[in-house]
Automatic annotation (TrEMBL):
SUPFAM superfamilies: UDP-Glycosyltransferase/glycogen phosphorylase. Residues 303-359 form the Glycosyl transferase family 28 C-terminal domain. Coiled coil: none annotated. It comes from Kitasatospora cystarginea. Pfam families: Glyco_tran_28_C. InterPro entries: Glyco_trans_28_C (IPR007235), UDP_glucos_trans (IPR002213). This is Glycosyl transferase family 28 C-terminal domain-containing protein. Transmembrane segments: none annotated.
Amino acid sequence: MTPATRTFLFSPWSHGVGFGYIGRALTVATELREAGHRCLFACDTAEGIVARSGFEVVGAPSGHNRAVPDMGRRQGQYISIDTLDTAFAIAGYYHADRVRADVLTDVATIRDCAPDAVVVDMQPTAALAARHLGVPVISVGDSDFYRPTANSWMPWLPDEDMVSPYPSCVPAFNTVAAELAVDPVDHVTELLIGDLTLVASVPELEADQEPLPWREDMHFVGPIFWDPPWSTVAQTLAGHGRDRTRIYITLGHGGKATGDQLQPILDMCAELDCAAFVSLGFRPDDALPTLPPNVLAGGFTGISEPIRWADLVINHGGYSTVLTSLMHGKPQIILPFMSEQEANGVLFAEAHKAGFVLRRTSRSDGGPRHFTHRLRYSGESTDGWCTAEEWRLAVEEVLSDSSFAAGAARISGAIREVTEARALTRTITAFLDRRNG
């Protein structure tokens, strides 16, 4: 090891279904590893994508360091989460005992690894543990991880209209923080503001939103997305759809959306003169949809090659997918399966006239967490089901109205400018150099 070699412990969120957190950490870790640094992970997915990518997973095996593979019986349903506080509450972090147990697990892992920095992506207990041990915290995250405004994950609701059935997690976090001699917080977003904070967005995408609580060592770095190094999707797409409209379809890695919800999109493609590619993720064989002749499929393929190939992207509203589609200047149609995904579609795609959300949610009379859907063409819907006809109308609207492609192209330049200049490794190592004097 040379004196310049540093050890980084990555602790991405492991209590949610999305792979975006771990994928984003893998992208940063890969860049640091290529620069000669040692990168360890405190968690992996059930499918082992961290280990398969050649990184060591450390710490005693537990539910805290294994990402949840799916939503179980709630797969396919719309999940309403109004704020980061509610997301933490779903993990049980409104109980001090639960916070304490996970923090102590993280403390033990950090002590064993002795890293130069702990890199978190929405993982508050690792941030608390690192602060307790005096280890620098580098935070990577979506912009809404740091915005303390009411309903930041459901910005279409009035400020006073809350949906969370849980108490705030702040008292539990502060109880454990006091035991560790760590400063208390007024809002859970403060837990994720690191000594260095890398916001996976660009100023132009945030201009019309509530301002972030900006600090000296916060940086916009543009979308950070991960493509599996073993993916062969580029070869699969070579020559597919030449001289035809090309549509890329992804509803995530398979944990949120069902194969039945994919099927109407594929049935719509069968009726169009187009070529399509669908990423199926980690779906079991008995949950796979039926493919028309003009549709090719892959598993967990990564997103950059299919997005680059496509003329139109149909997606679930995942943060990285939405921003990467914008970066490549591709219009998109979004079918969200949780409120943050709907917010991504509204705030990033619709706000820049680069696409639209196919179904929107609003309050119903069933109680605080009950919502009804409104489909773009069919109107009110209790279950939010989108037929092949709904999808056909959406695709025809985007393809016949050049303003969507123009909107995506306009914002693309701003995103590319930030992303291509970000130099993650240089930013991180320069921060540690300054900190170490």
